[in-house]
Amino acid sequence: MDTQSIADFLILYIGLIVLLSFHEWGHAWVALRCGDDTAKQMGRVSINPIVHICPVGTVLMPILGFVLSGSALGSFVIGWAKPVPVNPSNLRRPRIDDTLIAMAGPMMNLILGALLVGLAKMGVMVNSDMLAEIGFRFAALSLFLCFFNLLPIPPLDGSHVVKNLVKMSWESYMKIAQFGFILVIVAIQIPEVNRFITGMTVGTLNIFAGLFGLKLN
Question: How far apart are CA 50 and CA 28, in angstroms?
Answer without folding.
Answer: 15
